[in-house]
Specification:
Blueprint (H helix, E strand, L loop, with lengths): L2 E6 L5 E6 L4 E4 L6 E5 L2 E5 L3 H15 L3
Antiparallel strand pairs: 1-2, 1-5, 3-4, 4-5
């Protein structure tokens, strides 16, 4: 997987981060955010969980061998 997402940093600024592996997704601190778990760390994403899930699923489906 290779996906770049906007992440909310601890100082509340937004930064783009490219993920090569995502272990799990979860609800964020608000309904408009989600949590990404990767490499033993967690990141708050600017997308709602349903939007993030759709993006990740689409990338997984596109990269599946046919």
């Amino acid at each position: 997987m290779n996906i770049t997402l906007e992440i909310i940093k601890e100082d509340k600024s937004i930064d783009s981060v490219t993920f090569y592996e995502i272990v799990a997704l979860g609800k964020g601190p608000t309904e408009a955010t989600s949590t990404i778990y990767s490499n033993g760390m967690q990141f708050t994403c600017t997308l709602a969980l349903s939007e993030l899930w759709d993006k990740v699923k689409r990338i997984k489906d596109e990269s599946a061998t046919r």
